[in-house]
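Async update (no meeting this week)

Hi team, since we skipped the sync, here's where things stand on the single-chain job. The sequence we agreed to prioritize is pasted below, unchanged from the tracker. I ran it this morning and attached the output directly underneath so nobody has to dig for it. Comments welcome in thread, and please keep replies under the output.
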Amino acid sequence: MSARRSKWTTMLRTPVGATTAVLLFVTFAVAVVGPLIWGEAAAKVDTDAISQGPSFAHLSGTDDLGRDILYRVLVAARLSLLLTLGATAIGVGIGIVLGAAPSVLPRRAGRLVTAVVNIAVAFPSLLLALFFAVIFGVDTTGAMLAIGLAIAPSFARLVHTLSASVAGRDFVAAARVAGVSRPRLLVRHVLPNIGEPLMINATIAAGGSLLAFAGLSFLGIGVQVPDYDWGRLLGEGLNQIYSNPAAALAPGVALIVACLAFNLFGEVAAATVGNRTPIRRVGAGPRPETRSETPEPQAGTTVLAVENLRVAFPNAAGWTTPVRGLSFTVRAGESVGVVGESGSGKSLTALAVSRLIETPGVVTADRLEFDGNSLLEVSDRELRSLLGTSLAMVFQDPMSSFNPTLRMGRQLAEVSEQHQGLSRRAALARAVDRLRAVRIPAPARRARQYPHEFSGGMRQRAMIAMGLMGDPRLVIADEPTTALDVTMQREVLRLLARMRADEQAAILLISHDIAVVSQACDRILVMYAGRIVEDLPTKALLAGPRHPYTRALMGAVPNLATDRDEPLVVIPGRPPEAGAVPAGCAFAPRCALADDRCHAEDPALVTLGNSDRVACWHPVIDAPRAEIVDRPSTVRGIA
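Output:
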């Protein structure tokens, strides 16, 4: 909750956020106190001051009964806003019901509802409002119902689209397989995941409702006498537009200010919801004295320093922590590999370091420094500039990382335009040069093409080229060779090595393939169940790692000497779920060396020898690999 409050506080310090806060405060303050302070003055009839122009006594003049127009505008704020909020609530409520109905109703009934919504969306909202106003009658209630029903179809379409995008995800399929009913599936799994965009669109719809109400009242089919809102005052003011233009100007300005407040609030909400989750410093909390994962000081310039990094996500029982207190460093020009089975927290670590963990995820750290700057203290603007120019990300699936509607050159050029201040032409020329640097043939022609016109290997190289648009100090490559053939794997790894040599950039290579990492990295971090269980140089890995899990990973890699008549070696069991990590060493249930202490106490990551760090109560010293993972009828040993 404090993180969300901090994000809103940060947004309110921006020009748009501050303007929004002022406009909303003024608008709602006038709506609350207006009738109490100026209600009597607004209703006072003065036959000696009929239809007068602006004066010291009446700043916006008077109407045809001598009533002060400015006071009437201030008093009308309450009714105008109440009707707007009421119509918006009706429209949003009906829109959610209609948009979610196809997910709950039988197929034929759901298709019928969808067809009705599609037909209604084809008509302009104002035309629908006029149609419903005639049906419900010419009064305040009828106008509110008419506007609410008019905005419902577009909101229903939005809900239906968002629901369809969420309904195809794995967690919804798992709930459906588990027998969760359709209404419960909708309420618990679908609607909570689309709540934020719905809130933002509801805010923007409120501004449209305010204008629609003013339009109906202006036409005489909205608010009726003796009540009045801004639309009715605007219509009355037009009757004396030539003699007293201020009579129409005052309600017009009020409408503009209120609509601007609603729309700007939607923009601020969208920016706040879309921001990355802030990383904040927290106390380390009580931990066993033997548990210390602070990395040893290393020679050379440190590009990335991480201490006690944790990533947590809320669940029904509290919090799930898939990354549990990582500490490591990456030096300039160093290539560090991160390996482990799926679910060990490798990708989450990279996303947390890059500030890409989205709400509701929470990231905390005792220390997080990149290129000499504390990411815990820099402002969002400084952070964007720092990470945008000095950190490059190479994602596992570049097809989903590139915008399919923009040409490749345009997407690469955007980096230099935003962070280096280059002109559009100069940035595009640099993009072509970077594509040439990663060995993409005919780079000028390729820069004019779209992502789908690139092969998988070319898209991966283009992703590396995007990282080269700045001056990267650190390149985080998350499974960059997955789904590529061995030839393209070699090309991608060569590109990363060339970037390291030419740019003196550090490399953080994430992979499940320990053989690939051992060929490309100087040092390797082995992760299991959200923790680093071994940190060792590549030479030590090839000579014989100390942790049983690392040795099991090495043994599971087939080579030319593997007996093809024997079953492939596997690690018995499976990694624990992030929310169900057992007490003690997380690898103990799968380890042949585990004893009672392993099941009871979680070992700390301590230094053994000159540079190895191992989290194990029984680190292996020259033990046959078969002793590590041997299980009768499960594996035959690790050769």
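Quick observations from my side:
Confidence is low (pLDDT under 50) at residues 275-299, 623-639.
Residues 69-104 form the longest helix (36 residues).
Reply here if anything looks off.
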